[in-house]
Design brief:
Length: about 800
């Protein structure tokens, strides 16, 4: 055939002939189906056919004439001219030979499937589309559930006309493409009946941070347009690539979205219908875990293939669909990711909000940044004249027609959508923060009100009233010195882990389990193991929080392991030291159901905390849930870089009792390389360092508690705050005793705290004593590296 190419006849070398989208489908069918990747078959109506159609209808001169008088500053003028061009194309007639080839190919595709008049998707594929440095995705139209010769021809004509939507014309102008250098191929592809099941998108990196060691999968019920158009909040899944390659089921994170709408096909009216998703389907995942793993394996295979073909790492942006009739998964589109892959250098910016203000609304965070500006509430892109450059756009949802406004915005807030919605994708391309799915934003934020967008705190984006102060720290990993002393981070927020994991550090010296507890679990562990003993009202609150989990304890283990696993994956294979929970009794009491299981203590700071809880019959079963969570991270996810640490351990015998309870739960010191550390934060840890070294694999000095207890200073009391000083000779001597004891037994020793960053002389002291590692917060990284490097240099010179 002259104007038709079957997908398997083409590949990435065929972009000029069949466009980027169709070329990629052909590439996958030809090269990746032997590896098990399923791609729906179909054919391309070539770019030559598009040019032939324009020529046969003598449309070229008319289109040039219409575009020739366009006022680039007048959006309404462009809209009128674009509509005029599309009408010209829609009135055109197919040359007889072209029409016959399209019909013959469609009927041949139907015969291949063994179905008369098969349902197909008709998709545009521009010859400049889905390139590594430009994404025309969403600029042209696609048509689903097309059936029969006449509908295929009509959809093909409409797809050709969509090359001249206002947004497509504007995008080509911005990207510097000549309108007649870009042609349109049309793909006709067997329809995957995802309207009866689920569909979504896949990125082979984290879309917020650019972290490349994960596959990020979004999923909703029904057809996938609701994700791209931002109408729903999808399910989100992260799979860790390195441990997936080792054969582990490395699903490290699962978040169930509300999936408010389901786009389906009404067989009676032959129309697509968007209807509310039933409550039960909203609560349950739209992909099973084994399906997530299968899609992740395909995504890695696709990324590896395209990377090898281009001779450089090529993160991918994929679309997938599950056929409700057959239960099969398919990849229906693949294109190179065009945001993080275009970064020119490794510089990492860390935004930090300095002030606080009244919280107006929250949603999903996009961008890891802070932005300030005047809120501009716009309901329709035709009102863009109301928007001023530097404003914060507030609206319900966006689509490509909004892009001229979005390019001028300091930040974006939408009431609907997930992190792969149009608003989120464009915000990343523009390098600005966005808060999507911020329910009620248009009523909670005043038009013209000054606001601050904060997307630096995990997955939750926050919008505050007022212009708040923030700082921006730039870190160039290549320019940072690497001292002999290991530099590690304190990381308690899984939502920041993928960004922090790209910093030039040696691992994580402290992850506080209670931080993950509070954000991921939010329920007292005994309120789950002793659920039946609770009042009806509290059980109802727990039921709401644990919806979808028939086993309350499984909720705890699943949620906690995901938080821990995310941090361990972000730094893999570098070590990550997780400290078991160290809530005080008054803090535990604030967790849901906690008040029924916690005593009232006069001084919780030195009361029932840390190790003393783990083997106590009153809490032991709760600790075993923590143990089960760690086992899941190490054994099922394969993240054996995870070590654990016991806090507030008063005696070596107490440490042995904790190890016995861990062993009972299946977590055995030394097994598969498991290291168990102890926090050195009590004077007894320093005075009996030799005895503790016989029990544990290493020490981490907790300078705050150690200073408090050595000096007898309540660190929370402003009356004696002036006496709290880690540089006090007695505190330094206690630190030296810990380091000396560790060294005598060949055990590792580090410190987690702010003091080495705040005080150069304290950093020098630790280096002189031979400490192995210093762990600190990211905002103190540059200062600490400089001070440790200086101390090492001075020590060498001495």
């Amino acid at each position: 055939m002259r104007w038709i190419k079957w997908f398997e006849e083409t590949g990435m070398e065929s972009v000029a002939e069949v466009g980027g989208k169709n070329a990629s489908l052909g590439e996958m069918i030809r090269e990746l189906t032997p590896l098990g990747v399923r791609v729906p078959e179909g054919f391309s109506i070539t770019a030559g056919a598009y040019r032939y159609f324009l020529e046969a209808n003598q449309l070229g001169p008319s289109i040039r004439n219409i575009l020739g008088g366009w006022d680039h500053t007048d959006v309404n003028d462009l809209t009128v001219r674009a509509r005029e061009i599309r009408n010209l194309i829609l009135r055109g007639r197919f040359p007889k030979d072209l029409e016959k080839e399209i019909v013959d190919a469609y009927e041949a595709l139907s015969m291949r499937a063994g179905v008369a008049g098969i349902d197909v998707a008709v998709r545009s594929s521009a010859t400049a589309e889905d390139l590594p440095d430009a994404s025309f995705a969403g600029q042209q139209e696609s048509f689903l559930m097309v059936h029969g010769d006449a509908q295929v021809l009509d959809a093909t004509r409409k797809a050709m006309a969509s090359l001249f939507t206002a947004r497509a014309i504007n995008y080509r102008e911005d990207m510097g493409f000549d309108h007649f250098d870009v042609a349109l191929s049309v793909g006709v592809q067997r329809m995957v009946r995802s309207d009866l099941e689920s569909s979504g998108v896949i990125f082979t990196l984290d879309t917020e941070s650019g972290f490349t060691d994960v596959v990020f999968i979004n999923s909703i019920w029904g057809l996938g347009e609701n994700i791209v158009q931002g109408r729903v909040t999808p399910d989100e899944f992260y799979v860790h690539k390195p441990t997936l390659a080792l054969g582990y089921d490395s699903l490290i994170s699962r978040r169930i979205g509300t999936k408010e709408l389901t786009l389906t096909y009404d067989v009676d009216t032959h129309r697509l219908v968007n209807q509310p998703t039933p409550p039960w389907d909203q609560m349950r995942p739209s992909l099973a875990d084994d399906e997530v793993i299968e899609l992740a394996k395909w995504a890695v295979a696709i990324e590896d293939h395209y990377s090898a073909k281009r001779g450089q790492p090529t993160p991918m942006d994929l679309e997938w669909a599950k056929d409700g009739a057959t239960g099969e998964l398919f990849v229906v589109q693949a294109r190179p990711e065009t945001v993080h892959s275009q970064r020119e250098g490794p510089t990492i910016q860390i935004h930090s909000l300095v002030e606080s203000g009244p919280l107006l609304v929250t949603g999903l965070a996009v961008g890891d940044k802070v932005a300030v500006g005047r809120a501009s509430i716009i309901d329709d892109p035709s009102h863009m004249n109301r928007f001023q450059a530097g404003d914060v756009l507030v609206t319900e949802i966006t689509d490509p027609d909004w892009e001229p406004i979005m390019k001028a915005a300091a930040g974006i807030i939408t009431e609907r959508g997930g992190r792969t919605s149009h608003a989120a994708i464009v915000a990343r391309e523009l390098g600005i923060p966005a808060v999507v799915g911020a329910v009620g934003a248009r009523s909670l934020i005043g038009n013209g009100q000054e606001v601050t967008i904060d997307c630096t705190e995990a997955d939750t984006g926050r919008v505050y009233a007022g212009i708040l102060e923030f700082t921006v720290q730039e870190i160039d990993p290549a320019s940072m010195p690497r001292p002999r002393t290991q530099i590690m981070l304190n990381v308690g927020d899984p939502g920041q882990a993928f960004t922090l994991g790209q910093l030039p550090v040696d691992g994580v010296g402290l992850t506080r389990m209670e931080f993950i507890f509070a954000g991921f679990v939010r329920v007292h562990p005994l309120a789950l193991t002793r659920y039946r003993t609770l009042p009806t009202e509290v059980r109802g609150q727990i039921d709401e929080l644990t919806a979808g989990y028939s086993d309350k304890s499984e909720y705890f283990v699943d949620k906690l392991s995901q938080g821990i696993g995310t941090i361990a994956a972000a730094f893999y294979p570098r070590p990550v030291i997780l400290r078991f929970s160290d809530f005080k009794s008054n803090e535990y009491a604030h967790l849901l159901g906690g008040e029924f299981f916690e005593p009232t203590e006069e001084n919780p700071m030195i009361g029932w905390r840390g190790a003393s809880r783990y083997y106590d019959p009153s809490f032991r079963e709760g600790f075993l849930l923590e143990v089960a969570s760690v086992r899941r991270v190490r054994e099922r996810m394969g993240l054996t870089n995870l070590a654990v640490m016991v806090p507030f351990c008063r005696t070596p015998d107490e440490g042995r009792q904790v190890l016995e309870v861990m062993k009972e739960g299946g977590l055995v010191q030394g097994q598969d390389g498991l290291e168990v550390y102890v926090m050195a934060e009590i004077p007894a840890n320093a005075l009996s360092a030799d005895e503790f070294a016989e029990v544990f694999d290493g020490f981490s000095i907790g300078s705050n508690d150690l200073t408090q207890l050595v000096l007898g200073v309540d660190r929370d009391s402003e009356k004696v705050a002036r006496l709290f000083d880690e540089r006090n000779p007695a505190v330094k001597r206690a630190c030296a005793m810990v380091i000396e004891g560790a060294k005598r037994h060949g055990k590792k020793v580090g410190i987690c705290g702010q003091a080495p960053s705040d005080y150069p002389d304290f950093a020098a002291f630790l280096v002189e004593q031979g400490i192995d590692s210093v762990s600190l917060t990211a905002d103190a990284l540059l200062a600490t590296v400089d001070r440790v490097s200086e101390a090492e240099a001075n020590l060498t010179m001495a």
